[in-house]
Design a protein that fits this description.
homodimer, 416 residues, six-stranded mixed sheet, 16 helices, elongated
Chain lengths: 416, 416
């Protein structure tokens, strides 16, 4: 097993000003590579703190990935400290200097001494090209262990990893093969899911791990197989996925890298159906869930955010009497909304939301979290009442997920 | 100075399955308390790794906040390990046991041995009540240093901190007074802002720090004063804020804990104005930005997501000729959209968006990121062309921020 440690350098993380997303991104990549991440460390931009962290990391890990502290405004403390740690002089890297000179010339900006210093690196280091910034990456080796220093700016770090580091690590270390399979489920809670697949899960071989990754009423089941034979491990993981599918298939909307929004879009495209939304409590979020996907104009025609009753009446054709007798949050109103938007925007499908998202507006009869959703098409209208326990924003998000799932179920003819 | 270290325990973080938001939340709270966070550490749920981390933390810090590893499914490794570290027996905490028994009885669920074990704690620890979960917090002291163990579930941890830990730390340590003042700006980039206030920033006294916190074309300027006299430091920070304001006031939408969406809502409420949105490229996101705020139904009436040209024509009254001659992404169309939604929904203000969010759909004349926004009220219509360089989602987010800012500027009569 190859072990790794991630060392993040920067006061902005220790003060809580930014979230350490780099550590998560690097952890995911290393895990996918078959490297075991043992430790995350964050220290401030101070020489002794960095030296101590490097010493500890070298004892614990085979691979030490270091981010941060390479910007010119921070006096390059990470670079100098690495030179000290590896007992190395700093040298000017002529290739990087030429690149920087060209960069500044192109922008018509003067190059000052601080900029030139970005082209110096410890003599023992190998420079790694950074396509997106002025600070290069650096690769160090000692006693079979590898240290990589990268900028803290996420997209520069990610680019460096993908351009160089992941491949170099694959070459340097004997890593097992890893095969992942992700099964995306929706509208079933983690505990229910776990109960339903418990027997299958208990019978998984030890080299295939299962992770539950829940987010907004969607649970991703990630199967990870580890072994020395790639074809065998792929086959085993796929076979396990096929075994579990019949137990949960009504809730499965896709595999591997897909989102619920993309899956619904693909379904609508396949069936050549168009959709429009009538949104009261979700107030545009269902529309956003469609329109955030590139190419959604092929199936999403538009929608009405019907926050006031006047809009429900004038734009959606909801009857005044319906609102007067049953209220805006009712089965009668939601059905008229879904049917009304389908008619007004001339689409195959109309969906609607109306409810009390909170924190105010609840009554004894209709407490906060009472939300109606509906789906209308040429075959009829289906409505569903939700009772959600969350805060305003999460009530909006969950309702949106359940509207997308309602489309999925109706379009595919799935009864749950 | 009092130093702290945050120790997070859990494989799910090292595997990259979840983001370590606890470390950021705790860092922010400790920084606000006047404690200096020196180190973040994350280790796996293994005894030796935890013991080593505790040893290092005790050498480096006065306060060690520990999260994770307290759930029943993980065999309480954190708790047992803390008992070992402090050389303490485990004892049953009768008060917590009674609470657990009542909890399970109320839910009609049987209480198994694993559940009972959640009521045992190391004898040397003081139990801290956890109002939201079954695992209590634990407070340890040794040689003037404090260790606090809390569950990893964010809302339980945050509740424990607010109920107990922050106050106890205030009592235990002599902490300086801290005063923060946040100035929220919009529609000015960090670099421009920094240039504009450089002289003022350079003249700040050393005990007042400035942080730039940029997010989606909004930059929060956070002034932090540290001192032994609370009244004096408050006065100094406020005086510095008053000095910088004239340099940037056209871009300032609020102070301290407010969001742009809330600030715009407050403005509309103050002026008794209602608003409606006509959204093409933002596809509901501007509406969502209004409706995610509780109470927004007092000023947000509704909107039209006009993704197709038919909806622009039928629901918004955009002329067919306008679309034919100038296209959907044009000054002529955007003005008709804003005016049309204002009329259709009978509001004081109408705003509109139409553009090419990407990644497809760009032309030489109208490249990706070409986006028009407009504002219409009784006094006339203002339109603005944007040229954004981002990916689809960020183009949508930035456009939304700039629409909100356009409302702010028009309603307040600010010319930039």
């Amino acid at each position: 097993m190859t072990f790794a440690e991630i060392l993040t350098i920067g006061d902005e993380i220790l003060y809580g000003q930014i979230l350490n997303t780099n550590a998560q991104w690097l952890s995911t990549e290393l895990t996918n590579l078959g490297v075991r991440v043992k430790h995350h460390t964050t220290v401030s931009d101070q020489e002794q703190a960095i030296l101590d962290a490097l010493t500890h990391a070298e004892q614990r890990a085979d691979i030490v990935l270091i981010t941060g502290g390479l910007g010119p405004t921070k006096d390059d403390i990470t670079k100098k400290t690495l030179a000290k740690y590896f007992d190395s002089d700093m040298v000017m890297h002529e290739g990087w200097l030429a690149k920087l000179e060209a960069y500044f010339a192109k922008r018509g900006r003067p190059m000052v001494e601080t900029n030139r210093l970005q082209a110096t690196i410890p003599k023992v280091a190998t420079l790694l090209d950074n396509r997106l910034g002025t600070a290069p990456g650096m690769w160090f080796e000692r006693g079979g262990k590898v240290f990589v220093s990268m900028p803290g700016i996420p997209h520069e770090m990610e680019c460096l990893m993908q351009d160089h580091v992941l491949n170099l690590l694959r070459q340097q270390f004997t890593l097992p093969f890893i095969h992942h399979k992700v099964i995306h489920t929706v509208a079933i809670g983690e505990a229910f899911l776990a109960e339903r697949i418990a027997h299958w899960e208990d019978a998984l071989p030890p080299h295939i791990r299962l992770a539950y990754l829940p987010h907004l009423f969607q649970v991703r089941l990630r199967l990870t197989g580890i072994g020395q034979d790639l074809a065998a491990i792929q086959q085993e993981v796929e076979a396990e996925a096929q075994k579990v599918l019949p137990l949960i298939e009504k809730h499965v909307f896709g595999f591997d890298n897909i989102t619920l929004e993309e899956a619904i879009g693909n379904l609508l495209l396949e069936q050549g159906k168009t959709v429009a939304t009538a949104e009261s409590c979700t107030g545009g979020y269902v529309g956003h869930s469609f329109t955030k996907i590139a190419g959604s104009s092929r199936y999403f025609i538009g929608g009405i955010m019907a926050y006031s009753n006047e809009v429900k009446i004038n734009q959606l054709g909801v009857k005044k009497e319906t609102l007067a007798v049953h209220g805006a949050v009712s089965e009668e109103t939601i059905r008229e909304m879904a049917e009304g938007v389908r008619k007004a925007l001339n689409t195959d499908i109309g969906v609607a939301t109306s409810g009390i998202a909170g924190p105010d507006g609840g009554t004894a009869e209709k407490p906060i979290g009472t939300i109606w959703i509906a789906y209308a098409d040429e075959n009829g209208t289906h409505s569903q009442k939700l009772q959600l326990p969350f805060d305003r924003l999460r009530n909006i998000y969950f309702t949106t997920v359940l509207v997308l799932d309602l489309i999925r179920r109706r379009v595919q003819g799935i009864e749950i």
